[in-house]
## 1
Amino acid sequence: MTVINPNSVAGINSITVQSGEALSVHKSDGSLIKTIVSASGVSTFTSASIGAATTDNNRDASINIGLGASISQHTVNSLSLGTGGDERVSIKSDGKVGINESNPAVFGVHSSQSSESVYYRADSGSVDTIFGSSTALGYAIAGTTSNHDLTLWANNSPRVRIKTSGDVGIGTDTLNAPLTVVQNDNAGYIASFRQKNSGNSAQILIDGPTDNNIRPTSIDLAQAGTVKWSLGQAYAALSDRAFHIATSSLSANDTNARLTISTTGKVGISSRSPNSLLTVGPNPNAARSSHPTVLISPASGNASLMLRGNSPTIDFDSTSGGNAQVCTDNAALTINAGTIDNPALNSGEMVRIDASGRVLIGTATARAVGGESNPRLHIEGSGATSNSWVNLTRFSDNNGASNIQFAKSRSDTPGTYTVVQNDDKLGQISFLGSDGTDMANYAAKIECFVDGTPGSNDMPGRIVFSTTADDSSSPTEGLRLTSDKIVNIANQGTVFGRLNVPIPTQSGGSAIQVMNTASGSGDGTLTNVVLRSVNSAGNQWSHSEYRSQSHKFQVQTDNKITINSNGLCFNADTTAANALDDYEEGTFTPTATFETSDDGNKVYSSQGGTYTKIGRMVNCNMILAFSNRGTGSGRLRFNGLPFTVGDTLSNTILEASATVSYFAGLISSVSGIHPAAVSGTDQIVFYAITGQYGASTSDFGYSHVGNSFSIRMSITYNVA
């Protein structure tokens, strides 16, 4: 062992220690400062100073090596390496290491240079690893200086890779984008972005280049490397900045867009150009030119909208038959007035379509009326308002009107048109009232029936009006209008005219009665019935009754004919003397007798007469012929006039107007025969006209007529 005393150190330029020996450095008091052991060979120190070799009082001890290099101890249990008289590396008592850093955190490097770096290079490779910072650039540096990727490890495995191109991969070494993130287990999010400051929003920016077109800027969702969904902007003209959700990668005017939000806020589902606030379907112009708020127009199949919650599902769709429908899953569909979310403004249910298909207005319950508990339409109101009325109005500049139609087919299958049969009921309007228990009692009905045999474009019908009498429980027919326009009142079995009215059973009742119930001036009240021809301006027939006047009937307004208690009056002359009180037509059978004696054995070959009676005047035409005159004597008489002859003259034998148009079969010649009516009887007597120019008359009788006598005559007389 080599021992060097401190006092002998000066002037010693070198110390050689044999291999395997140790060199110890001691203080003057003999205490050991340092022991240098060389494991092999000889260690050569070109310069060394031991002890307080510098003016730094913080150094307890130091070794100066060469020019300006030193190994020193700062404070207790610390070590520093210095160059140029300054500390460069320090190892603190707690193990912290600083390079040009007097107060390192754990390991610190400090330099006054504008760019400082720490390099690491493996002996066998050419990959340089750099850790540093740039004051000029304003950021720290960690990575490689060679053309190699940078990886970050955790749990002894690579977790993050930064390619030489700048692409970053997390969880993968295979990158296909500037940032690639791969989840290698089944749990958690692939990526999570959070804004923890409550005063700021969370945003992700995807920015594309700016030019004359908007490039596809999107978020693509892929499966097994194939893009399945895309969200963003398709390549399009600058004016079209719509947002699309597609089922493939977005491209120019992408036809695979399934959801589109236009620049005006319109939303399209399967429509790239929605023209409504919400358009569903690829054909936004299919509905109509004035675009609705919501348009559902699929390319094919049915259009459908479904609302589903805790309550029954509501489905709006179109059927395969081209019809629209709204339905619920076995529940009622209701329409309410007001708002759903504000009960104070909700006036309640207005319309209900229940699960059985009944439409209820003003009620949630279909009440039984007329024995029918399942009506298809039920309208109900209450109180003094008219909230159960049904109004049909039409505004039109033609002759059209509002219409209610009843129709029937003889088939149970809807849409099958089977011909109806005679007496089939086609429609009915009923009137019912409550009896205190229910509404099953009919007060009246109006019914329509088939009235004949229907054919092609041939549907005969009749209308029947029925009413319920007092103390009765069901209506009976009161009036019928048949297919051939016959009006039958009270269902008369046999009809004889267009209007058939039965005589009332009440005593003194009239078949037809016209009454004026308007308030008037007592006896001056008029009751009038008028019959008028279509082509005539005046009344052809009218009945007028004034209580204060004597006439009961008049024809035309100028009183050309009037009927009153005196009879038929003309030209406003209503006196009894000038009234026509009777008219009659008929036949009668005259007989012949001889005034003095008659055996009654006459045989007639012709016998008959006709008459017309107008007022008191009777005109008769008759014929009488014998084939055997029998036995008798005296003047010839004809008996059997239709009316008794009146006596308006002093003579009992009236010189009535009479004419004999033919006579034959005489046994005694006469120049003429003159008949005369006998007053107070139904007889005619005859006179024979004799002498030149008929100057003389005598009785005409048995002595003049033979067995073949015949006569034709007419006579006009006044009745008694």
## 2
Amino acid sequence: MSSMREQSSSFDVARVVRELSELIGARARKAYQPHYEQVVLRLNRKGKPSTDLVIVRGRRVYTSNRDRPMPSKPSQFAMVLRKHLNNSRFVAVRQYGFDRVIELTFEHGGGQLKLIIELFRDGNVLLLDDEGVIIQPLTHAKYASRTLKRGVPYTPPPEAVDPRQMDRAALDELLDGSEHNLIRTLAARANFGRVYGSTVCSIAGLEEKMDSNSLDSEQRDALEQAIQSMLDELSAGAGAMMWMVDSEAMAAWNGADNEADRDTASAGISEIAPIDLSYMDAGMMVEVGSLSLAYDAVFGSYDAAAFIRREEERLVDSGEDEGERQAKLDRRATQQRAAIDRFHERAAITQELGKSIQDNWEHVESILTQFNAAVESENWQSVEDKLVDVPWIDSVDPVKRTIVAFLPDEDGEPGASITLEVASTVHQNAQRYFEEARSQKSKSKGAQAALASTEEAREKAEKRTAKDAAAGRLRGRQRSKRFWFEKHRWAMLSGGHLLIGGRDAKGNDTVVRKHLTSNDLYFHADLHGAPSCSLKLKDGLAHNQNPSEAVPEGVASLQIVQNLGEGLEDARELPESMHSEAAQVAVCWSRAWGGGGAAATAFHVRRSQVSKTTETGESLARGSFVVRGQRNWHRELSLELAIGMAVVNGVPIPVSGTPATISENFERWAKVLPGREKKDSVANRISKATGLAQDDLLSCLPPGNCSIEDHGLIQP
């Protein structure tokens, strides 16, 4: 991701709002929350591809058409948005004054709902009913002037200065009343922000650091004209501008002719804006069609991988993140140490008070005797009323039959306070304090034992984490749902394209019926009972350009994509080498693997050549097909596969393919050859070394005994 500023200014918001108005009439379909920081609302316009409204908390809002992985299970906030906004029509959008607040209005069933997007501070997204009451906020928040929580009317933030409404008198008042330099005054008090404040100064030919109140009339004229020219450009202009860091970055951007190349080149973008920033180098400027396109160029790849990052950050053991587990143990140890200190302190204090009662035996006995005599002759209430004039008794508790009295200090004045049971003797009161001290000491011993147990657990966790890190093992959690291709045999070919094969007769039918389109190719080993395979033109895996730090070194971070084969209409246009790869994998999935042969044969055909019925019209049995027309043959295919270690959409899984492809894309991999070791044993050995699930490994391995040639998979 580029290092340019991430937070939108009021100028940016104004242009985005104008761009969003072009989507009025679209219908809201589904809402997603791929990451705690991000909300995505999918909008559909009749006859046009769906558009994602991407909301990144406190940072930016823009539209995008990127392929972005989404969670299969929606968050609570996403579910609320789906419940209320699904199929509603987007009817209006506005900016609150010149503030970083956007209001989207949706119409549903005769009523209206509003989605408020706040882009200042930590940001927020709030759904309001037709009366302006908050249905659900993304985050509950409380500020000095307003509260954002469910069930209360929405209150906008205090209104910010709108430079569009600022005349010359207001400008003079702003400058004269400021004790700061010009750039700071424009950025903060005039609501321009640093970037646009610098632009105003540049257009007006004024020094940023000059005192605001020192500008003469001519300079103020220039400033006023500069502000007006910027606002005119903002309201009348279209599109956006991007500035590159240098000529090399400019060349890389101009030479990028696909999304992946543009994502790589985006690292050279230093700034984007809806208007010309005159202080920037004009020779390094590139124009684009909209501010959303500029945002998507700079942040699109990073934002689209939000769900993958979330999942990678949650590489877990038994459903709990190892980092969080360690943090919990740290917090518990801290709490236990604090408790031990409190027990020791209380034990020392109560021990000392018990001793002080004994040392001041006569004083305490006198207080008890006099108090009991007073209560006997009058009553508790009467005695309590008279205690104001008694310096040695602080208070009484008639219910508990106790008094709080003072012991004399070194000067004979009231000092430490003690609680006395009036029905008990001096000795009994002192013993009560000694017993409390013993109780605190006992609790301290229990807390120390608990701390020792916690420290032991911490040590084990640290050793386990260090051992796993040294071995490069991943800790995967139980999955309730698998990726669509995991239901079948699958492999990754060069370019990331997927090859899908049936596991049995029913699976063969499914592959051909659901996963073999007119753009794909059908592959089959020249052996009876071999799986039917589909080489996918569009579906595949691509390297995640923004992996989480949670992914261990040497483990590939991949994401599922559906936009491969850009510019191609048919899988026949893919390189012949890829066809050979697919054929090689297809024969490895067949009984040729266990036949002991050194090579095998396979063929591929178009989808239209594969049929479920014979020429006589008879329907074939489950898993069987008729192939008509000319076949494209692949001969002398090697019986060898490879397995690489990866995190796909945040999930640790093995990826199989040919040795050439796997070795090129994975640092940790192993070659799999026909051998004598049972498949279960091979999977178990790899699982122990990597942390990958044994069932996932069994699904990737060929159908028969194997041998392993390790290239960092087992021994990193």
